[in-house]
Amino acid sequence: MTSTTAGSRRILVRSASPWRAKSAAVATALLALLIVLQLRDVADVAIYLALLMVVAVPIALFASVRLWGGGTWEGRIISGGLSLVGLVGQVLNLTAGLPGASALQGGIGQEAVLTTILEVATLVLLGIDVSRRPPEPDRRHPYAL
Questions:
Q1: Any residues with CB less than 8 A from the CB of 15 and at least 6 apart, and which?
Q2: Is residue 91 assigned to a domain?
Q3: Gap between the Cα atoms of 132 and 138, Å rounded
Q4: Domain contains 145
Q5: Which pLDDT tens digit goes with each residue over 54-105?
Q6: Where on the phi/psi map is residue 120: left (φ > 0), alpha (ψ -120 to 50), or beta?
Q7: Among candidate residues 30, 25, 31, the one with its CA nearest the CA of residue 64
Q8: Number of H-type helices and E-type strands within the chain
Q9: Ranges assigned E (strand) in 7-139
Q10: pLDDT tens-digit profile of 11-55?
Q11: Number of domain units in the chain
């Protein structure tokens, strides 16, 4: 953080580059689009998975908006959680299969590969963003060093 003086007030300016959070926002929004594209195929096989996917789309869009607007903690948690749950679901689908969705087991299509790449990219970008961000100032003690 750098500080500048405006009159008699001090203004804190965040010096971190927001490109990682914005890239994770784009990846999360693309992930929501891919979920919508896969929805019809999944709904024909397992309705409970389609319902989970319908719920995941607005949540992913909310997370991408929060990440785009400055990389807030709730955007990071939601986006990272959705990506992690998606990866776990794909690994389970490829190995043991999902309950009631035996037709989907082991299916590796272009959408699944692209979804996996976006989920991993989101997790990596969020991890790098968290590790490189400067700490927030303590609001309880604004004049403490």
A1: 1, 2, 134
A2: yes
A3: 18
A4: no
A5: 999 999 999 999 999 877 888 999 999 999 999 998 888 888 777 777 777 6
A6: alpha
A7: 25
A8: 4, 2
A9: 9-13
A10: 433 435 578 888 999 999 999 999 998 888 888 888 888 899 999
A11: 1
Q: Kindly state whether residue 44 falls inside one of the protein's structural domains.
A: yes
Domain extent for 40: 17-132
d(CA 18, CA 126): 11
Residue at token pair 């082991």: 106
Between CA 30 and CA 35 the distance in angstroms is 9
The token pair at 20 is: 């990682």
Tell me how crowded residue 78 is: count the other CB atoms within 10 A of its CB.
Answer: 19
Handedness of CA 31, 24, 119, 88 (dihedral sign): negative
SS3 12: strand
Find where tokens 């299509």 sit. Answer: 109
Record the tokens describing residue 41, joined without a space.
């195929």
In this structure, the chain runs to a length of 145
